[in-house]
Design brief:
single chain; 165 residues; Arc Repressor Mutant, subunit A; 7 helices; 63% helix
């Protein structure tokens, strides 16, 4: 068997000694993305019975960056503007999101969470962090910090690499 096939189940941490670690990275990213999609659906289901799985990340992004525009969301998530508009409209109908006039451009609107939306995002984030703490309970705080730093580097690198695709 190749190292990329044995390493994920071998109990080893990291890719030490593997001549070509890229297949292992590809495998682990694929697994992480599948789990993230599943987790996103579970979070959306718990958050609100009518919330689409792709809508919760939009709410969380608006919570972090109030005053964001639809076009900013489209760029951030790599989703077409029509899809963003449809999801934003649905989130408005659920009472989770509100559009406000853009103070810098009278032709535009910015997005903000409603009180109900803020409460929902806070509840989901707290529950998610509790599950993450439980899952990583045996990790040292330093290992968790290294993971956060490494994921941040990966996201920045992938953001640059995917621009213009």
């Amino acid at each position: 068997m190749s190292p990329a096939r044995t390493a994920p189940d071998s109990g080893r941490s990291g890719a030490e000694g593997i001549a070509d670690p890229y297949p292992l990275v590809e495998h682990e990213l694929s697994l992480l993305l599948r789990r993230a999609r599943s987790l996103g659906k579970a979070w959306a289901d718990r958050a609100h019975p009518e919330l689409e799985p792709g809508a919760y990340p939009l709410l969380a992004h608006v919570a972090r960056t109030p005053g964001v525009r639809n076009s900013d969301l489209a760029v951030q998530f790599g989703i077409g503007r029509a899809t963003i508009c449809r999801q934003v409209q649905h989130l408005e109908e659920l009472g989770l999101l509100a559009r406000q006039p853009d103070p810098q451009d009278a032709r535009s609107q910015v997005l903000e969470l409603t009180g109900k939306g803020r409460d929902l995002v806070t509840k989901v984030q707290e529950a998610g962090r509790q599950r993450l703490r439980a899952a990583l309970g045996e990790w040292s705080p330093d290992d968790v910090a290294v993971l956060a730093d490494t994921l941040g580097r990966l996201n920045k690198t992938l953001n640059v690499a995917t621009r213009g695709l």
